[in-house]
């Protein structure tokens, strides 16, 4: 272990001598303190809090990711170019200890940088809350909905098996050549249509949903969050009433909802219960608009199950675990390839991460639907006459769509721990980050995956002839 720590100290001294760490710290402090002051929010307290959290931490995390990958690639490939690695390899030090010592150095640098930027963000947020004259009611609502740790409770989904089957049978009876279209293609569309109809609220009607509650809330209140769409285009205010039933008590709140906007109200001093019933009454507007809610997150209950400070700490731990994995990836790329090639592959990884939302969404679509929709683009790309039906997709178009599907799916499966990160989104919206999730990510991204990468790099360090040119 002493040899590993010696390599760690040597790597840290090399970084400090190159002044890379000092420059990185300066850029991070500027990003944490100056950037939020230059970006204009939406004028609300909630918007200001989210801006103060997401912009500095997001930019800081992006810079740390780039610096970590670059430092990891240079940690071994760069020393191999300058021949300093050869001096280390001839010593009686295990190859894994060499890799581990450099990884520890990157972990320490990331821990220091992340602590500094997290402290700057916390101080800046406190200063903004105290320096601006926000109303006390707005501060209380922000502490209950944003500066909190809320468990999101989706509604119990209705059983739509019978309506879907009935709609499918009607479609078979009314559609010519219906048997030529696979059921795996049409049934998901019918399910989405039936489910959307179940979560719609016509004028002078109500939508009733049931929610299971957490057993041990930290405060006796619930936040109702919704975002609906209107059947009438444009921003039309709709008069409505939110009715919450818990146990034998009923709480009502008249509201004016604007379709397309995320809105939240808080019900306080609620009794303890295992289940809640929510009724959303649409009293209509002068245009008699129907409201549509997304079945998964259009109408949610949010229950406090922790404190914001604990949630903030959990978010920082997950960010640190992610940086630990990036450090391992950078060091392993530097072991396998020369520094230019390793740096190029690191940039490709960063580009893939920037497209993570698109890749994840494409990978979640089932194969038949993806191929059917994507192949249709090739068939209609040169069709400008709407009076004639579009030609059927060619075999080449379907083959290309299948290749794209498996490419997106394979990328998502291979990089899933890196593509499905919602830490900053959860933190800025007051969503609870459970300790079980933190421990899982810490075990995977800071222990298991780096260990696998370290063993692969160790095998290369043992077998590769370092006097020869690196793989390019």
List the main descriptive attributes of the protein structure presented here.
472 residues, alpha+beta, Jelly Rolls, 2 domains, four-stranded antiparallel sheet, 17 helices, 11 strands
Walk me through what this model shows:
This protein is α+β, with helices and mostly antiparallel strands and 472 residues long. The chain folds into two domains: 254 residues, no CATH class; 143 residues, Jelly Rolls (Sandwich). 60% of the residues lie in helices and 15% in strands. It contains 17 helices and eleven strands. The strands form three sheets. Strands 1-11-4-8 form a four-stranded antiparallel beta sheet. Strands 3-9-6-7 form a four-stranded antiparallel beta sheet, with no helix packed on it. The chain has a three-stranded antiparallel beta sheet with strand order 2-10-5. Helix 2 packs parallel to helix 6, helix 8 packs across helix 9 and helix 12 packs across helix 14. The C terminus is likely disordered.
